Structure formats: structure tokens, C-alpha cells
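dumping this here before i forget
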Amino acid sequence: MKIYQVSDCHLQAGNTEASANLVRALQHIERNADGAILLLTGDLVCNPSVDVYEYFREIIETHVSISEIYAIAGNHDDFEMMKAVFNGSRIMVKKTVKLANGCQLIFVDSSQKPLTNMPLGSGRVSNKDLSLLKKFSRKTPSIVVVHHPVVDVGTE
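structure:
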């Protein structure tokens, strides 16, 4: 099984360079994607709007035939808007996915805004999501999918 990850697309209206880069990456994936999973791991857009998420969805669905596509939000995304726009498409927003090999994917939302004054770009994982991570990963081999590191990496 192949797992491809695309992150930090920062797609926005009028930015042809960001969309061209995304298309190039997807074309590479499509050439090699037999039996693959595609993970879209946050900061899919720069300034969230329904139109930009619809454009993102259109690019994904036009350029890859992969049926298992999962997305999580980053700090530049609007989780609820993203989820609503992707509903009914091949791009799924889930908490966990069981894989055929007995392993599972666990999707951790780090798009929540910080509780304290932190630098731009900071995200936060809620205590509830950390508890779910512990619960889901306790008995099953897991791959954790998250946009931000969940530990202090020693930098702003």
C-alpha cells in the first residue's frame, strides 16, 4: 500500500502558482498511485471561502483517480467549511480509518486556535482529541495524521 501526503497547498483565488504546483504534485501521484491513499494534511487554502474549497476539491477530483482521499485542517483552514464543501465528494474528513493490513489512520485536528497569545501559525490539539488519540491507538497499530507537531519543537 502506498500513502501519499500533500500539505500546505495554501490555495487562494488568483494565485496560479499555488494551483499549478498542486496539479504538478497530483500528476506525479497519479502516475504512481496504484492502490494508494492520499492524505491532504492541512493548510489546503490560505483564506478560507466556499469558492476556494470548491476549487480545491475540483482540482483534486480532476487530477487523481484515487478513491481513498482523507483531509484534515490546518491553522489556515476553516474545519467546518472544509467539511461541508467536501461532503459528498471523494475527499473524506474522518477521525479514524481502518486499513486492510490491520493498521489504522488516526486523524488529529490541530487547527484549533491557541488558548494563549501564540505566534501566527500556531495550532492547538484539544485535550478531548488527545484522549481520543490515546484511546484509538492503545490496542491497534496506528499512523497518526496531524498538521502541526503535538510536542514543543523548541521554536516559535
